[in-house]
Amino acid sequence: MASPDIESPWLCAAGESFCGSFNIRVEEGNAADILHVLEVPTSSVPYNCSIPKPPPLPIKPCTKNKYPNRFLHCSFVPKETKDVWDKLFKEGNGADVYIITMDESCIQAHSSILSIASPVLGNILQQSKVKNGFKYIKIPGVPHEAVYAFFRFLYSSCFEEEDLKKFVLHLLVLSHSYLVPPLKRVCEYFLEQGGLTKENVIDVLQLARNCDAPRLSLICVRMVVKDFKAITSTEGWKIMKRANPALEQELVESVVDEDSRKQERLRKVEERKVYLQLHEAMEALLHICRDGCRTIGPRDKVLKGSQVACNFPACKGLEALVRHFSNCKTRVPGGCVHCKRMWQLLELHSRMCNEPDLCKVPLCRHFKEKMQQQSKKDEAKWKLLVSKVISAKKAFGPFSARHAGLL
User: Where does 267-352 show beta strands of DSSP type E?
Assistant: First the structure.
């Protein structure tokens, strides 16, 4: 429970002074029908629709951080320049390097361009021997089309979107192995922006770990945590479970941790809602005792019995609680659950009130005097409750009292 369960031997005379300070002008309702004081009805305050719409934002030039298709459709290099380099690669004019792929096919290239585009390829070419005027580089284990797309990118930064979709994992490995950061960023971006699926996320996660792509790795882990049940049924998970049990354990622990954090967040949200409702109950109590509300209020106020909806969300439940408390024969804390709740609300108000001598809430000063007789343990509980109620009000802002039901 949000409020501490504190029982004290309150005097019956104090209860009588409470009853004498109110002018109740409706018949007493059944105690079983009393609403919980923390019940928050739907807000009756209409939303202001007269606020004009803001002007449209200015159009900004294309940047890679704001537009997801930047890598596929935007470029600051003239098309003619890219076409020249693309043509040089495809025709192989003046080539002095042969690239041998896994199916024994050859791709022609130029050692000077490869050395500039990739320091790793530059070192390999320096150590390669010349045979019949050509140097040879062998790239096994990668499909010919993926190797072709990789070396084409080294020349012109061009690629076919279909090749990227089909060979993105091969291109990620090649760009990492041969130190080609631009292509590596393209592959990571493509995977982050929709290239991840339930079937490939485990493979991508393992590649991201091996290829030093921490952001992509984090996105993969989040996807696994979000849809853990479906992903554990994929073939990729089953293979990973056999080959890398440590990663499986890590992902299972991540799911457990995320579930714990989610439960903790929900618990804190519900706790803040209770504290906020307590604050609204304090506002409604002060409103009833100072101004009166509809058919209940202090003796010095003439009430007309108007049934207009009140702006204080907790007012309806609190009115029913006050009526019950005024006529209850038990009234002793611990003897009636409704009266016990009223005692606690009155004490909470007293601890939050800064003007007990001028306050119109019954027993406010009485509770101030009783504080000096309480134990340190009870005092600490009440101080903690007061601080959390005040903090919840500040956290939700000035409009929280009207929209608490929307949380």
Answer: 296-298
* Strand segments (E) across 119-203: 135-138
Q: What is the mean pLDDT of residues 233-253?
A: 93
Rounded Cα distance between 391 and 394, Å, is: 5
Q: What does the block give as tokens for 342?
A: 């009223």
How many angstroms separate the CA atoms of 75 and 158, rounded?
A: 10
For 68-84, write each residue's pLDDT tens digit. Answer: 454 444 456 788 888 89
The SS3 assignment for 279 reads helix
Q: What is the pLDDT of residues 140-194, one digit of tens each?
A: 999 999 999 999 999 998 899 999 999 999 999 999 999 999 999 999 999 999 8
Using CB atoms within 10 A of its CB, is residue 86 exposed (0-12), middle (13-18) or buried (19+)?
middle
Angstrom CA distances, 343 to 273, 319, 367, stand at: 21, 14, 10
CA distance 280 to 400: 9
pLDDT attached to residue 356: 76
Distance CA 125, CA 228 (A): 46
- Which amino acid does the sequence have at 251? L
Neighbours of 243 (CB within 10 A): 10
d(CA 301, CA 27): 19
Tell me, yes or no, if the pTM score tops 0.85: no
What is the DSSP pairing of strand 135-138 with strand 97-100?
parallel
Of 214, 262, 252, give the one whose Cα is nearest residue 232. Answer: 252
How is residue 370 annotated by DSSP? H
Whats the size of the chain, residue-wise?
407
